[in-house]
Amino acid sequence: MTVLAVASEVYPLVKTGGLADVAGALPLALAPLGIRTVTLLPGYPKVMELAGEGEAVADLDDLFGGAARILAAAVHGLELFVLDAPHLYNRQGGPYSAGGFDHADNWARFAALSRAGALIGTGLVPGFRPDIVHAHDWQAALAPVYLAFEPARPRTVLTIHNLAFQGNFPRAIFGALGLPDGAWSIGGVEYYGSVGYLKGGIHAADRVTTVSPSYAEEILTEAGGMGLQGLLRGRGRNLVGIVNGIDTEVWDPARDRLVAQPYAADTLEARAQNKRALEAEFGLRRGDGPIMAVVSRLTWQKGLDILARILDDVVARGIRLVVVGSGDPDIERAFLAAQRRYPDRVGVKIGYDEAASHRVQAGADAVIIPSRFEPCGLTQLYGLRYGCIPIVSKVGGLADTIIDANFAAMSTGAATGFIFSPVEEGAMLDAIERARRAHEDAEGWQALQRQAMRAKVDWRESARRYAELYQAVTREQ
C-alpha cells in the first residue's frame, strides 16, 4: 500500500508543535507493516536547505499566482515531495507567521499545498499513484475536498490534531480556490458565510481521525466541538481516535546526545547528573527537592495562565520551576516576573528550543501539563520515556496516556503520573502537592519513575491501527 501524506510541518525539517513529530514518525512506523509513505510539505527555506535540490518530478505552471515544482527528496529516512513554490514559501519567519502576525496569504499558501496533494493523488507525478491521501490538520484539509470532485481518486483520511485551529477565511477567496461552484454549500466548504478549510475536509474525507480516543469523544460535545460538533457527530463510525506515539529513537534517554548524562530505568542514579546540569543551566539553587517543569506553548489552551497565578504558592512549598516555551505575551510576562521574584528558584527560557526540551525532560523530576483541552499531547509521553513524571489535567490524550498515582495504582505498581480535575487553581495545586509529597520518598519515587519509563509510548500499536484503517477504507472502493 502507498500513502501520500500532506502536512505543513514535518520533523526534523520544520517544527512548531506535535503535528511535525507525528508527520515525521508515523511514516517510519508504518514501513515495517508494508506501507510506503511519501510526505508532501511546503518548500520553506529550511526545508529547501535540508532537502537539497532534489529531483524535479513535476511542474505546475500556475499555482496560486506563480510557477511551482514538485521535488522528490529523501531526508532522515523519510521519502518527501517538496512543493517548491518560492512565491508562497520563500520568506522569513515561521511556517505560518512572521513578526507575530499570520502571513496574509495563508489561505493561498495552504490551499496550494492541498491542491498539489490532490494533483499528486490523481497522477501528477509519473509512476506514483497513492492508494490513500492522508491530510493533516486544516493546512492540508482541502486535499480531500479537491479530490471529492475527481471521478477516479484515491481514498482520503483527514487527521485533526487540534480542532481549535480550523482555517476559516472570508468568502471572497472562494473563487480563487479553483473548486467547482458546488463546493460552496453546506456539504462543502461554506461555513457560516466563510470558507472553512477544516470543515470542508471533515465533510469530504472518507475517514476522519483524531489523535486520542478521549478527544474523539470530547469534540462531539458542545463544549469541545468548537462549532463543528454537529458535523462530527454526523460522521458516526467514520470518526475514530488513535492515540499518538513518539519516536523512541529520537527520545531515548539511554542514547540521547543532547543530555549531560544518558541513563536508563535500571541506572536512574545517573539521572542526578542531569538535574545538576539543569540547575546550572537555569541558575537554580542546588538541592534535592523537586524541580518541576513546563515545556509548552504558553497559551490559555495549555492552562498555563492558571499555573502562573498559583506560582507563588508552588515556590513556597520548596518546589523549583523551569519553563521553556513561548506564546501569549501576558503569560510570558507572568513567568518572567516570577523569575525576577525568585531568581534561584524559577528559571525561564522564552522560545522554542528542541535541545532544551530534551535536557529538561532528563533533569526535571516532573513536568506539568495543565491543559484545558488536549487532543493528544506528546510532552507527557516524552516525560514518561525520561522518568520525568507527568502532572496532567484529565482531558483528551492526557487522560488516555497517564495512570493516576492514587493509592491503588501505587500499591500495584501501575501508576505513571498525577491527574487532576477540574482545570482550576485548587485542583492543580493539590496534584502538584501530591507529587511533592511522593517525591519525598526517594525509593517510592524511583519505582514510579521506572514504571513510567516502562509505559508503551512508541508508534507500534497506533501504526497498526492506522494500517487497519487504511485497509478498511480501501476495501470500500
Q: What fraction of the residues are assigned to beta strands by DSSP?
A: 15-25%
Mean pLDDT across the residues is 97
Total number of strands = 20
What would you report as the Rg, rounded to the nearest angstrom? 23 Å
Helix content: 25-40%
As for the number of domains, it is 2
CATH architecture descriptor of the largest domain:
3-Layer(aba) Sandwich
Note the gap between the termini: 14 Å
This entry's quaternary arrangement is single chain
CATH class of the largest domain, anyone?
Answer: Alpha Beta
> What is the fold-level CATH name, i.e. the topology of the largest domain?
Rossmann fold
Shape designation = globular
Low-confidence stretches: none
Strand count, sense and closure of the main sheet? 9 strands, mixed
Give the strand order of the largest sheet, numbering strands 1, 2, ... along the chain.
3-4-5-2-1-8-9-13-14
Structural class from helices and strands? alpha/beta
Walkthrough of the structure:
The relative contact order is 0.10. The protein has 2 domains: 2-245 and 460-475, Rossmann fold (3-Layer(aba) Sandwich), CATH 3.40.50.2000; 265-454, Glycogen Phosphorylase B (Rossmann fold, 3-Layer(aba) Sandwich). It is 38% helix and 19% strand. Helix 4 (106-121) packs across helix 6 (142-148) and helix 6 (142-148) crosses helix 7 (197-204). The strands form 4 sheets. The chain has a 9-stranded mixed β-sheet, sandwiched between helices. A 6-stranded parallel β-sheet has the order 17-16-15-18-19-20, with helices on both faces. The chain is of the alpha/beta class. Strand 3 (55-60) and strand 4 form a beta hairpin.
